[in-house]
Amino acid sequence: xxxxxxxxxxxxxxxxxxxxxxxxxxxxxxxxxxxxxxxxxxxxxxxxxxxxxxxxxxxxxxxxxxxxxxxxxxxxxxxxxxxxxxxxxxxxxxxxxxxxxxxxxxxxxxxxxxxxxxxxxxxxxxxxxxxxxxxxxxxxxxxxxxxxxxxxxxxxxxxxxxxxxxxxxxxxxxxxxxxxxxxxxxxxx
Length: 189
Description:
By secondary structure, this protein is mainly β. It has one helix spanning about 30-35; strands spanning about 50, 65-70, 80-85, 105-110, 115-120, 145-150, 160-165, 180-185.
């Protein structure tokens, strides 16, 4: 639902560091969340929606990562592109300042220009990510268990999408030593 949501209006943005966050990730929009393509089945390798759900094959321990490549058609380069990473996190210590127990990072790289986009790196007043300025360290989100990269057209042809386990302390599934996650990619029409 998060990946298919739309901004509630021009007064709102998706910056997660704002003191005022009235809209969250926006209004759910079912046609974007479950496109007509799904009527024929979901593919993990092609189509306007790609999903990698939580599974043991996606499990990560600290400092491990998984990377996928996404190739966009000429038609897809003219519409916004969204990547959403979510994971189940166990309850944090109530006395801790940051409640997030496990920290995953979503990193999207434009392979044509080498521009790098980090999850939730959306500047104030914007609904799209800005590329990382290599003049300083990347601004990483270590507070939320949802990370988004929203890219505005015109888009490039090739992207890599990496899920990096920056810090995995406790798996919410007690019989496992690593964490699983879900990653959605969608071309917005």
